[in-house]
Amino acid sequence: EPDRMTGVVRDPHEILSGIFGYSEFRGEQEAIIRHVVAGGDAVVLMPTGGGKSLCYQIPAIAREGTGIVLSPLVALMHDQVMALRLAGVRAAALNSSLAPEERRAVEAAYLDGELDVLYLAPEQLAVPGTVEFLKRGRVALFAIDEAHCVSQWGHDFRPDYLRLGGLATEWPDVPRIALTATATPETHQEITERLFLGNARHFVSSFDRANIRYQIVPKQNVRAQLLAFIRNEHQGEAGIVYALSRKRVEQTAAALRDAGIDAVAYHAGLPADVRLDAQTRFLREDGVVVVATIAFGMGIDKPDVRFVAHIDLPKSVEGYYQETGRAGRDGAPSEAWLAYGLADVVQQRQFIDSGDGDQATRANQTRHLDHMLALCESVTCRRKYLLGYFGEFDAPENCGNCDVCLDPPKLWDATVPSQMLLSTIIRTQNERGRTYAAGQHIDVLRGVGSERVTQMRLDELSTWGIGTDWTVAQWRGVVRHLVAVGLLEARGEWGVLWPSEAAKPVLRGEEQVLMREEVISRATSSRSSGG
Ligand code: ADP
Ligand code: ZN
């Protein structure tokens, strides 16, 4: 084991107060910082707003040499560097947007040991000569920000991150710290493996954001619903409204302005000065509402955002959690509001099907979407679901601060159709030795023949036609719900649905399946209104 302890020049606590002006460390910051300062590797899972930046900035300053921060967000590097420089930290960034003379100045400062922190985009490491260049200077540590981007099955994979595994072999003597605000247990494991952090200490903070109230409502007239939500509960307060498309962003911002709300639009298609203006107004003025695509928010640190509203369904629980996490960083009561309808599901499925990813990518996207749907349709505490998704299973059944806990939904007993569906899936697999898509199971249950059905002799199954009491939409609701509550699992790279261990008591009639009534009625009415 190399001695990584050498070259510590300043005390972390003195840096915290002297440079950053804070009197106390927060949560696990101190333990993390002391571990890295002493030369240890670390994996840090901490929610948005938890204070991850100091976990590598302070060790970078404390240790001799330059802390190299690998961050995917080139657009934010400039702001981060400026903020550090204002505090008196010697910081710079190397990325493709630099003019040649700027680049030469940054390189010279690094080689002369005059930088505490150097931001680098992961793709820079692929540029020939970069590794050799970095080796000519002294590296205090490597910080790998947004480390979940290394996970192929996560929601935000970036191939350039795979290269970061090489740091372990190129610089065995330099401590590495990987940080993320979004990691399921699977992603956490992938981070550890792919970045070769086998000897790292793991610091996993609770992901609970107790001051955020979660609310998910069925979508009807979403613009009117949003307006009522803002007027009744957040008049004059700062908030973020997320929409999926640029057009919807602009239309919604205009509608809110017409209704007298101080709303600005933000998306990547707007000119840079318009975007900067929107961002500056949001940060500096009181009570501005930003209507935005998910391009907005990364690296924006506004403590008093009172609400985050989603008028379209997020693509993953990770994304939803990250976006809603921008509310209430000051700890004061805040709200995460989401309106969700069947049309969202259809649209998202179409996005996935028409996307340019391969089969495995689509299966992965579908899996993420299914978990998001599961959250929407959950009949139990939203917070418990969210925390469970991120691997925390000890949350109470009732958080007292989400829509389900505050106003429990009306339930529908879906035990019988669930049993029918589960046994159909098991029969087709056992008797035909093949796997089928959800739609084919539903055809079997409803006794709907197709060329494929007869060809596969599915009409000879004993569950053929036993489910005609329910519509296709209702059956889809049941499928979604069973995936939602984990009775059906999507397995393997093809995402084949298969009953889980937890489905056995349901099949034996020992456990009930309860669904939200509103999902069923919506499903039914959507049939007559054409979707
Ligand atoms: P994250 O990257 O985890 O989302 P940040 O590093 O941006 O979080 O920190 C969130 C906010 O909390 C920032 O405004 C930061 O200055 C502040 N902060 C971090 N650590 C402390 C601390 N020990 N005391 C007070 N404020 C802190
Ligand atoms: Zn709850």
TrEMBL record:
The keyword Lyase does not apply. The keyword Thylakoid does not apply. One of its GO terms (cellular component) is replisome. Residues 222-370 form the Helicase C-terminal domain. Its EC number is 5.6.2.4. Keywords: ATP-binding, DNA damage, DNA recombination, DNA repair, DNA-binding, Helicase, Hydrolase, Isomerase, Metal-binding, Nucleotide-binding, Zinc. It catalyses: Couples ATP hydrolysis with the unwinding of duplex DNA by translocating in the 3'-5' direction. GO terms for biological process: DNA recombination; DNA repair; DNA replication; SOS response. Residues 33-201 form the Helicase ATP-binding domain. One of its GO terms (molecular function) is four-way junction helicase activity. Its cofactor is Zn(2+); Mg(2+). Belongs to the helicase family. RecQ subfamily. This is DNA helicase RecQ. The chain holds residues 14 to 544 of 629 of the full protein.
